[in-house]
Design goal:
Layout (H helix, E strand, L loop, with lengths): L1 H12 L10 E3 L5 E8 L3 E7 L2 E6 L2 E7 L3 E2 L3 H11 L7 E7 L13 E11 L4 E14 L2 E6 L3 E4 L6 H11 L7 E12 L1
Antiparallel strand pairs: 1-4, 1-12, 2-3, 2-12, 3-6, 4-5, 5-7, 7-8, 8-9, 9-10, 10-12, 11-12
Length: 193
């Protein structure tokens, strides 16, 4: 689940938009990163992370997601995800990184959008995995760009060691099933600094 989120972040920051000497920072209050959990086969619930930071600097994009900021809209579920699923005592953050080729994107005019294919890496500290996604990059101002997932990105939570935590959450909640495949989406605002 977490990787799913990070996925989106890494993608957003990996968007080439200007000269490589520029630094572009994520605007936390104008950005979102969310995921959907599916339980009992057909009950979907939307969740998000409230705190994320990151920047593109010297050709490298890096985004950090604070796992303690998970928001499921149910306090006890937030607590269980923090402690049982994400184990924030040992892994408080997830990092998403990507190399960025910024050549050829300085001509993106205000109001125009491009769809890009992005390779990125999600790192939990214990496990690292590479991903691919399509993102929509929209120039919203002279020094501002929006980067959003072009479509939900399916992430297999078991790749990051979350299958056991999901199973524990399923047992605690008395559910028949919780899917380990988690669709993730994001919409990040980046400002040039």
């Amino acid at each position: 689940m977490i990787r799913t989120y990070l996925l989106g972040i890494a993608l957003a920051l990996s968007v080439p938009i200007a000269a490589s000497a520029d630094r572009w920072a994520v605007v936390p209050d104008a950005s979102s990163f969310g995921f959907i959990s599916v339980k009992e086969g057909d009950i979907a619930e939307v969740h998000s992370f409230g705190r994320l930071t990151g920047a593109i600097d010297e050709g490298k994009a890096e985004v950090m997601i604070d796992l303690a900021s998970v928001e499921t809209h149910i306090d006890i579920r937030n607590e269980r995800m923090r402690e049982i699923l994400f184990n924030i005592a040992e892994t408080p953050m997830i990092t998403v990184t990507a190399a960025i080729d910024v050549d050829g994107f300085s001509d993106l005019s205000i109001g125009s959008r491009r769809t890009l294919e992005i390779d990125f890496t999600i790192d939990t500290g214990a496990v690292s995995s590479d991903y691919f996604a399509e993102v929509n990059v929209t120039r919203v101002g002279p020094d501002a760009v929006s980067v959003a997932s072009a479509q939900p990105i399916p992430v297999d939570a078991s790749e990051f060691g979350y299958a056991e935590g999901i199973e524990k959450l399923r047992e605690i909640a008395g559910l028949d099933s919780i899917s380990i495949i988690v669709p993730v989406s994001f919409d990040l605002m980046l400002n040039r600094q």
